[in-house]
Amino acid sequence: MTERYVKKRETILDAAARLFNQRGVKGVTLSDVAGQVGLSTNSITYYYKKKEDLVVACLLRSVDAVGDIIPVAASEADASRRVTRFIALFFDRMAAVRRGQAPEMMTFRDVQALAGDHAEVVFSAYTGMFRRVRALLAGDGALPSDRTALNARSHLLLTLTVRAMSWVVRYDADDYARVAARMSEILTGGLGAEGARWRLCPLDERLAQAPSPVSTTHDAFLRAATALINEQGYRGASVDRISARLNVTKGSFYHHNPTKEDLVSACFERSFALIRDAQSLALDAEGSGWDRLCALSRALVRHQFSERGPLLRMSAWTELPEELRGDKQRTISQLSLRFVALLVDGMRDGSVRPLDQAVAAELVGGMINASVELDRWVPGITADNALELFVRPLFVGIIRP
Asked: For the chain, which has fewer Cβ within 10 Å, the N-terminal or C-terminal residue?
């Protein structure tokens, strides 16, 4: 393998990762990548025969980038320092990418777009990365020793850290270290002020009794499509599979849904409405900002496991037609600001400690979004134990017992 070959391959990977991050896997072709690097499509296929091969190479390079920083973080003496160092190093790497000093990293939000052998290769590499991150939390007397609790917290730490690739771009590269410190402070110390307690409150019952969407054939299609997109990505959620899950014909599918893209867009709107309605109840309720945000988060994670669930992964916006993406991204940002409002309420009434509300809102939203994949990392997870194993650690601190 010549130096020229390696250099050209890295140039292709940089361009591809950048395009995949901007448009999603579905929105990028090999000819798009070729145009970015001044090559013909045939020249790209000399290096990567299929787009899926290129996606795998980009994702494996991101896994390697994370793998490079884990041993450095692991050298710290305790879990708190290891978590803080891991996040700081990851943000340093993202800042270097932003400044053009390190290779582009592809986000992991489109992993579900892969199938077959391609998916197996990436999931195997991601699992190895997960286990190494888990070791950062293990072996510390302050943390739970059972594997189930450790897996849940490891999923929380890894998912929230790599998910930062999607939102840290709003900041100047010179501010990445500051943002990393604030994120670490929240993850290690939790959200609550001194005296804040993780407890059920009257809002939990109100949220549990909130009216459900009317059960219709169209709503059944939305639930089935949402679950399949979460599990297998846009491509995996084929019309045939959605129809088979509901035991209906393809003709019935197209009777209720003009196109698959229309159905995916409607899945977003359904999840947006469910989140917005729950947020409105929490914003209008009595009680401290802490209690209301805790109750809201418990309700939304519980919804993921209910018959009405799950919520659609917010990262699925990359699988929409380009003309619909901007509208969905704006709505996602608006919903995040409603979490900010509850955090501000908590800081004003003294139940939430002083922290960066924008970063905290991203972590709360990211935790709710990541809960849909909990069963992959925590076998036997249920709505009840997910609240203790996965939601509570974000609110009281990921390294606290």
From this structure: N
How far is residue 209's CA from residue 196's CA, in Å, rounded to a whole number? 25
Q: Which of 235, 29, 3 is nearest to 115 (CA)?
A: 235
Distance set, CA 105 to CA 17, 42, 48, 124, 164 (Å): 6, 24, 18, 18, 12
Tens of pLDDT, residue by residue over 181-238, are 999 999 999 999 999 999 999 999 999 987 766 566 778 888 888 888 888 777 777 8
Per-range mean pLDDT, top range of 24-38, 171-185, 261-275, 311-325: 171-185
Distance CA(149)–CA(385), nearest Å, equals 10
Encoded amino acid at 56, one letter:
V
Spatial CA neighbour of 207 closest among 309, 310, 299, 301: 299
- Class of residue 38 by CB neighbours under 10 A (exposed 0-12, middle 13-18, buried 19+): exposed
Domains and CATH numbers, the chain: 1-49 (1.10.10.60), 59-191+388-401 (1.10.357.10), 202-354 (1.10.357.10)
pLDDT by residue (tens digit) across 96-147?
A: 999 999 999 999 988 877 888 998 999 999 999 999 999 999 876 656 668 8
Nearest to 96 by CA among 19, 174, 194, 162: 174
Higher pLDDT, 113 or 80: 80
191 sits in the region (left: phi over 0; alpha: psi -120 to 50; else beta) called: alpha
> Across residues 280-305, what is the average pLDDT?
96
Which two tokens mark 397?
């601190």
Determine the Cα–Cα distance for residues 104 and 10; give it in Å rounded to an integer.
9
